């Protein structure tokens, strides 16, 4: 099987900051490990003239209507992507086009079967993520049209969560037979055995609860609630430390001493990946109570090291986190006290915590790693190849 892997960014390296937080790199790597030949049709360009047109539209809508215009939804940009892929396809031996997100293939006309792997539909993102809130009506229509066209053109639509897949079926009337769910894997190089994970869990301190917040958007990722939880646990008498990676905490006055802000750590370098790996491994819980999220890869990364995850029940997160298997999901309106009670009960019954942490690793081994995901995607692609 030979696939043309389409992406707007350079997917051949982790050093590209636009590489979908590394997921765009790990997708083709997972397929290569399944003996699939991957030929890259990536690094798509935006023409200067098209950028200028979109910029004028953006200024127009901001000034006259107070709404936003995203060039990523503009048909001119999307047609340009598809044209570039058509030209690159002519120089490949691929028999399937496989796209990271739908942007590259919305207007693609080719004789190859088309498949894509995405974490959300436009409907899912609209008025859910800040950047997709307050869009102008033209953009909204473009976004829905983009999703419909991609689903019509594709023989296989893979989503990383049941949430996104169901929206494709219910809202965009996609054929349920071609809509599938395959979670992404963990974007870390983790090869620990069960025994090594047991030792890692055992080595975590029992006199201090170490929480890790790992996200680039303090408010969208629920940093304010994570901080409130850390404060609450300390008030309960449980010595708790909250390490913040990816952004700076927002707090009136001086930060409490038990909040450890480390700023942004890039995964594009070996040193950065090693440091994030260390921080996750040494934590008792990953806490990321996002108010809006699709399927954060960091949850898979945490489970790869036997770290349970705590989050709100929003977006596609329920596909990743299963209650009392690899963490706990809380209702969107749950307060800090509910999180504190859950953490306190597990931490003060450390054998129970160790069982939960080991169960989290089993979830990683059985379904939240790139090897498993790659196998499932290969199975889904086989009928397109033989057909």
How would you describe what is shown here?
Helix 7 runs antiparallel to helix 13, helix 8 packs across helix 12 and helix 10 crosses helix 13. The protein is α/β, with parallel strands linked by helices and 387 residues long. The protein has two domains: 201 residues, Glycogen Phosphorylase B (Rossmann fold); 174 residues, Glycogen Phosphorylase B (Rossmann fold). It starts with a strand and ends with a helix. The relative contact order is 0.12. Helix content is 43%, strand content 14%.
Question: For the record, what CATH class of the largest domain applies?
Answer: Alpha Beta
Low-pLDDT residue spans: none
Mean model confidence by pLDDT: 94
Number of E strands: 12
The CATH topology name of the largest domain reads Rossmann fold
Gross geometry: globular
Please summarize the sheet with the most strands. 6 strands, parallel
Strand order of the largest sheet: 2-1-3-4-5-6
Instruction: Give the helices and strands as they follow along the chain.
Output: EHEHHEEHHEHEHEHEEHEHEHEHHH
